[in-house]
Queue: 3 jobs
Job 1
Amino acid sequence: MNSPPFCYFDCNATTRVAPEVLEAMLPFLRQQWGNPSSAYGFGRAVARRLDQARLKAAALINADPREIVFTSGGTESNNAALRGALAARPECRHLVTTAVEHSSILKFAGLLQKQGCALTVLPVDSNGALDLERLEKSLRPDTALVSAMLANNETGVLFPIAEVAALCRAKGVLCHTDAVQAAGKLRLDVKALGVDFLSLSAHKLRGPKGVGLLYVKRHTKFQPLLLGGGQERGRRGGTENVPGIVAFGRAAELAMTDLELQATRVRALRDRLEEGILRSLPGVARNGAPEPRLPNTANLAFEGVEAEGLLLLLDQAGICASAGSACSSGALDASHVLSAMGCSPARARGSIRFSLGLDNTAAEIEYLLQCLPAIVARLRAQGQSQRE
Ligand SMILES: Cc1ncc(COP(=O)(O)O)c(C=O)c1O
């Protein structure tokens, strides 16, 4: 029997390391393995390459290299932004975020709340959109930080971060954005956004896992999350992940080349996938506003279907997609993002996310469109017979 083709539609979970990125990092595992903090030439040569990577990562978001703090990824960057902003201004003990943030924001904000911080979690509407008036009203004299994501990882819905940052600035409140899902898909400019902090993660843009960055705007008060050596200008202790950082720099460089062209190509594939499914299958609906949205993400609700079963059968057909659900104690919980958008538990449990990338082809989309109707019909029939 022929094995099915491998179709990866889960690029918001992670991406394949680009061959150029792998090539860039290997010398730092093989020959140039020195510690960049060492005073001798062998270490200093590595430090210079770290500086070059910092320039490239900074260019991706139009930042000054001195504003880049390399971290172990999006989770650490998000934790560090919340902790760093609050610790630097002890007189401000109020934090504002949204109900659809990644768990690295929501769980850390919950911890800060347990430690005595006041927390406002803003709702979203059924399209996944934020009410800016409500956000503005939530700002208090003691608000330290607003943290709102640029692009939602489950639905791809974009928040108007430049407007959020402007509201914050007017009230003297710091603004952080989790741009982990936006990088490599949209052009990013911290100056145009006007944010004080921004998080990125390399593995979402064809870099390796375990490396990311936190942009900290010049002259912003900030306390490190990790204390240790004086690395990263005293803003993040720990010997730098040199191969990872060099790879991140290369991935940033690649992401900047042809970004709009690639995004247009990926958008066309995503639209073909989405329209193909919506047209050929009854009882399917999109979750979240169609625009403004990431060009690569489609989140679809399949009536009368459990995402768990759908993903299993897709997997058997060689297709990787995901449910916007956290797997806890063996059961799929309904996604907090879809729940916040007012989806019923049944709709949330029947929703899956397709997130495309640069490696996807039109043939893969056609293969999915060919497989899906029979899979959905089979699951619906099973559900029907279980109910009878
Ligand atoms: C929006 C968002 N923020 C943060 C993260 C965490 O990034 P990392 O996997 O690098 O810790 C993710 C990862 O899925 C994400 O989608």
Job 2
Amino acid sequence: MQPRALWLKDPLAIQADGAERGIVVQDGRIVELVGAGRVPAGTDVTTFDAGRHVVLPGLINTHHHFYQTLTRALPAALDRELFDWLTALYPVWARITPEALELAVTVAMAELLVSGCTTTTDHHYVFPPGLEQAIDIEVAVARRLGIRAVLTRGSMNLSRRDGGLPPDSVVQDEDQILADSERLIARHHDAGVGAMVQIALAPCSPFSVTTSLMRATAALAERLSVRLHTHLGETEDENRYCVEVHGRRPLDYLAECGWLNDRVWLAHGIHFTPDEMARLARASMAISHCACSNQTLASGTCPVCDLEQAGVDVGLGVDGSASNDASNLMQEVRAAFLLQRGRYGVARVSHRDALRWATRGSAACIGRPELGEIAVGRMADLALFRLDELRFSGHGDPLAALVLCGAHRADRVMVQGRWVVEDGAVPGLDVGELMRRHAAAALALAG
Ligand SMILES: [Zn+2]
């Protein structure tokens, strides 16, 4: 049992003002920041000595495809740009079984947790026959591991036969997609503050979904009050496809589909013009920046500072494990920091910005103001890192050291006031056995 109130006492450093002596959590929330020279106001308080820990708000992952942990560094997909990469992988993904997916999701969520991630999204859009319960499987694993999740019901209904990119074997028809979306929301979506599981809707991309499904999905999201997500602005190929097939650029196409509104967060957002950035801001849309994936697939560099200057919130996503090929959100913070600093220079990008993107920025992407910040009333979602590894030896500023020296593993992680990572591991998870079964599933899939 967790104690009623817990004081995380005297942290080495903490990403919050006025919390020099730590914070108090109770009933899943942060209830007090303890300033210098003070002690907690309450008396019924248990203490956790955080003297060796740097405390961050739990990191929030705003874009991923868990199933892709089964196809990391697949030889057939190496050294390809997005469209060729997808074409190589679709037939492999069409063979994923429920058992393999459960292993993939467990691996991805465990990787995320030990990297300091407390809330993750996923974008699952591959539903070959037999894998209709994919999102239900994801919900079950999230509940088992204790990670907060916003799981998007993805979709593809435009196959090669109709001018799309994916093969027939991985697409579904519109009625089936919409009915299942409604089923999942009714069954799993919690609209309340502090929800552990939410469902959002996420047609895959303009080149794998019909205009009719884009529109119907936006209408369904509006009616059932859930968020909307898709890939957009990822490549120049996508721009060309949209102009050729729809006669307009991707954002104009999205507008035509009823998607320019504050329910929407987009993965990537690389290839927008200044005018398009202003339109995104006016519609209160947000962008998930996926620095590792964008570099691996040579898609381009997301103009994060320009987007923020225009008024667009930016969060971070590790993206699928076949284009990253990791699910480590702390490493993604460093990757985003390096990429954006290289683009904009020292005056515009600091390690503090990168941490802000992964926390408050990501919380804005998923419309969850109760997350992403260490402040009274926010959820008690925290990531605690130690700096006693070789890579940190000789460090100065502890918060800067996390990003600059390349922190990659949290020592402890708390979600909703409950420890879900202890001593750098997920309690009760047999990682050796998981890896053995997951590797066997990946091998079977590749064969
Ligand atoms: Zn993606």
Job 3
Amino acid sequence: MNEKPLFSSMHTHTVFCDGEDDIETMCRTAYEKNLYAIGFSAHAPIEKQLGIKSEWNLKDEKADEYIAEVLSAKKRWHGKLKVFLGYEADYIKGKRTPADSDIISKNLDYVIGSVHFLCPEGTEPFTVDGGKEEFEKGLNEGYGGDALKLMNSYYDAVLEMISTGGFDILGHADIIKKNTYNRNLWPKEKEIARQREVAAAAAGKNFAIEVNTGGINRKKINDIYPSLTFLKIIQKYIIPVIITSDAHCARHINENYDIAIKIIKSANIIEHYLFNGRTDKEPLWISEKINKI
Ligand SMILES: [Zn+2]
Ligand SMILES: [Zn+2]
């Protein structure tokens, strides 16, 4: 066991989707920062499958090139840095799941499963973590302004994604707070009850929940995903956590991990996990004690 715990950066975006830097720059930065591994998690394509335009997802016609470039970086960095090929795949009710056959057929090393879109009946999907305007429009047109209903429908989607499976890391589990932080749109205890359901459903599965500093890195919100209250529930259910930065540029590759560690420790979580590839079916996880810091 190493003296100092190791960290990885498994949630990253590059110029292939909505990131700023290329794959080589991200690998070099991860190597310079002494990370154990870097994983590439381009937003999986959705346009063909959903028939909607998205500025931040990988284009279907770019998917093969993305995969080839990550695999070539994996070879180039062999022996110096572990490089993993992944997708951040959307769960969109009735339309898209991380377990869809086109995603499985890519033979990825890992998949992050995330809910960004809600799809209230009779309306187009909208993102809960996009701009304020889109959020408010979705809230009003999709839920008649009933924020509690929207919150419930977000956690319903997370629960449905867990039961559908197909992912190794649960992405930013409470990203619903991005546009609702400190607005008291619903009773706090109602959300905590839903988070308890998510943790109960996640317990004993072979995926980790990410502790994502991306909101702070991009100055969108002054909190990590999931927040301390949710992490305390996660700790009770003994679910592995993996620290990620949701880096959209190389300089964010392990940005604010110190904040994540501090909050994890406050939740009494004593170790974090590193992804180490997979066997035929199962992801392999390595635990690292964080109380050494
Ligand atoms: Zn995401
Ligand atoms: Zn992301």
